[in-house]
Amino acid sequence: xxxxxxxxxxxxxxxxxxxxxxxxxxxxxxxxxxxxxxxxxxxxxxxxxxxxxxxxxxxxxxxxxxxxxxxxxxxxxxxxxxxxxxxxxxxxxxxxxxxxxxxxxxxxxxxxxxxxxxxxxxxxxxxxxxxxxxxxxxxxxxxxxxxxxxxxxxxxxxxxxxxxxxxxxxxxxxxxxxxxxxxxxxxxxxxxxxxxxxxxxxxxxxxxxxxxxxxxxxxxxxxxxxxxxxxxxxxxxxxxxxxxxxxxxxxxxxxxxxxx
Length: 260
Known about the structure:
Blueprint: H1 6-28, H2 51-62, E1 69-88, E2 96-110, E3 113-124, E4 128-140, E5 146-162, E6 180-194, E7 199-214, H3 225-228, H4 233-240, E8 243-259
Antiparallel strand pairs: 1-2, 1-8, 2-3, 3-4, 4-5, 5-6, 6-7, 7-8
C-alpha cells in the first residue's frame, strides 16, 4: 500500500476545522425555545391591564353590558336629631324624631362611577317634612349581577311645615310661618342586585350631618314687641333672634332601579 504523505493528512485536518467552525457558531446563535428567531415579529396578545377593557369584558361576561343612565325610587325609614351636635337659640320644642322616608334619583354611570341627584322627603313625626335635594357620587365594584358601592351625598334641605308640637307661636300666628333650612352631607353605602339587564333591587344606608338655620320670625298681625316679652323664653327667641343647629340623621332604604 502507498503511504499517505504526512502533509496531506495535516491539510485535511485544517480544512475540516475551518468548515466546521461556522456551523458550530450558527448553532450557538439559535434562539432558545419559546423566543422568535431573528427577523421574525414577536406575537402579541391583547393586554387586560386597561381598566376600560377589563370593565367591558366583565360586563360582557355578566351579560349586562355597559350602563349609561340610572333611575331609582326608594322607601325606608329616617331618624333625625336636629340639634344633637350643637344649638344656638333654635327655639324649637322638639328636635328629635323618626318616620318614613321616600325618595327618587336619576344620574349617569361612567364604568365604575355614578353621578346623580336625589330628592327625599323625611316625614319626621312631631316635627314635619324634612325635604332634601342632594347630589350624589359613588364608586362601584360590580361582580356579575351583584353591584356593591360606596360614596357621598350632600345638598340643600328644608322643613316644609313645622308641626304645632314642635313650635309654639303667639296668638294669631301659625307654625308654618316658622321656616328651617340648611344643608346636609355624609357618607353612604349600598348594594344592588340585578334581576335583569335593566332592572335591579337594592338596599342603601346613609349617615347625614345636618346644619340648619332658622331665620328670625316676623311679628304676627296684632302682636307688639311688648306682647312678645310676656311669652315663654323659647317663644321669645323665635321673634327676637335667628337660630342655628347642627345634628345628624340616619336613613336606611330599599330601592328599585332602572338602567339604560
